Amino acid sequence: MAIDPNDEILQDFLIEAGELLEGLNEQLIDLEQNPDDRDLLNAVFRSFHTIKGGAGFLSLDPLVTVCHHAEDVFNLLRNGERRADSHLMDTMLRVLDTLNVMFGDLRSGVDPTPAEADLVENLRRMANNEDVAAEPAAPPPPEPEPEPEPEPQADTDAEPAADGEAMVGAGDEITDDEFEALLDSLHGDQPPKPVETGSTAGDAAGEEPAAEGEGSSGDLITDDEFENLLDELQAKGAGPAATGAVPSPADDEPAEAPSAKPEPAEPEKAAAPADTPAGGQGGGGARAGGGGAEGGGRAAPQGETSVRVDTERLDEIMNLVGELVLVRNRLSMLRSQHVDDELGKAISSLALVTSDLQTSVMKTRMQPVKKVFNRFPRVIRDLSRNLGKEIELEIFGEDTDLDKNLVEALSDPLVHLVRNAVDHGIETPEVREAAGKPRKGTVVLGAAQEGDHIALLIKDDGGGMDPQALRRKAVEKGLMEPAMAERMTDREAFNVIFMAGFSTKTEISDVSGRGVGMDVVKTKISQLNGTIEIDSEVGVGTTLRVKLPLTLAILPALMVILDGRRFAIPLASVSEILDLDLTKTHYVDDQEVIIVRKQALPIHYLKRWLKPGHEPEPRKDAHVVVVHTADRKVGLVVDDLVGQEEVVIKPLGQNLQGVKGLAGATITGDGGIALILDVSDLVTILMRQLQMSGRPRRASRTSEG
After folding, report:
1. 364 CB-near residues (< 8 Å, 6+ apart)
2. Cα-trace Rg, the chain
């Protein structure tokens, strides 16, 4: 079958089913820890059922096959006929991986790759309980299954009415049991079973309709069938109300049944079209009449409260808002030059509206960092099983919002950091016990908003890092000279793990040992205008803090002057601004430094980067912008300071594409062009220039002063 990746129905399916797959990843991990959680079992079952239904509508047979077998297995689980164990969960996680591969094929416009035959066979055996003998875990005694013979009914002809009464008794919403029973009745030969709403029904609810799994080969319905089904249901529910016959406890129903409140229907349980009329033809009219007789009609159905917008359109709107910000900056500068009260008020109002618009548009691009965090329960589970460790993951702040582009870019760096915490940080259970620790280690992953930045935390209670061992390893690998290693502070020693080629592992494994990964993390976070800091204590654990701007589209910057030109330094990288006497400096390993608060601060002249070979003269009142990168803090000497300004990042022209040290360009308030500096790249370039220059030290600049 030819797949059109631009087909609107397919795109809707990929989005909605993709959200279900993301939820399944977390639900399956939770289920392994809580195998008897009926809410989780039902949620997983419904997810597979919904994906199967959408795939069947689109004739995606490979997806239907896998979801159908997985659905059958979970039907047994929720009916208490077997219990979730590690073997079953391994298979289900493999099913999830297979579905993700199939979805990747669909997004690429190719037919989904069928699941491996052994996986389908494993699912079939599980669904038939053929593999139970090989599993040591015995399921707990399930609640008594209902007898196969039908329960006594007062009158078989009154069954639909009883069904309608049950529906009315529960209000206008239907429960999961009722919905699934109706689906079964539509495709099977049996009439819909009335679902009790009393407390006795709650006692017997341990068994949810097994007909889902039994007749699932033909339980796909079309939109027309679904709407007719809802209309039929509403018509049945409206009958007694229209005639005034409000249901009361029947003789064969316990007296306390009406007091039991029906469970509210979950929003996700019906994969119904959003525009399905809630009132529906005749049924809705009857119900409206009944409501009017009681002095109040049913509230009109609310319209949809959200719409899907293509991300390209959001990016386009954000670019237009950026242009508006530039115009605002321009007008604000003109106002300072031309004093006019009325014009000043108008420009101030425009600036206020522009700021509000900018904030609103930025919020439309925001996504919770949970989209990244949701994958880590699975990562921790797989790593702990692979490495023979017992690890518990704690997550907080997953609802913190972040720019969509940053959420996507953060995924790989965070995976590296978490894998590093598990592999290098957390010890094996035996080692932890010998050290007086609990057998199970803990990894904490968190996020919090701090002003216009987001702070991420990755913490473990493992063995920690020994700064002296890191210094020694860096020297052994030839990454630095022994004298330089000895002069490093402990914080600087921790940062050597970000050097390319550095690894403390002596053996190469699937997880680590090749000396790649952490240097990639540093580079990626620097590209996002972020910083990363490390604190560690031997035997206690390690904490990494990542700080990132909330968005990359518009960012505050410090405007500086270099050789008469204006440049922008991202404010996220700026620690402080100092006026220093640079005639009193020292040299340490050919690096020029100055003492600030009894600490040596490396000094770099930006003019050496702007004009290679140029040697600037030191000034007594030099402006020094102190910036921080992933592993160091340095002072950048500039000619003059302009002030803070919000800048809109524009791509560089073809002639400047790929120039190291530049992150982009922006239009300033006076209409000019300013280049935006890439601080991390810039410091690396200046260090390299310093090493290659080999210029002599001048006595006037080595005095103690």
Report:
1. 309, 314, 317
2. 33
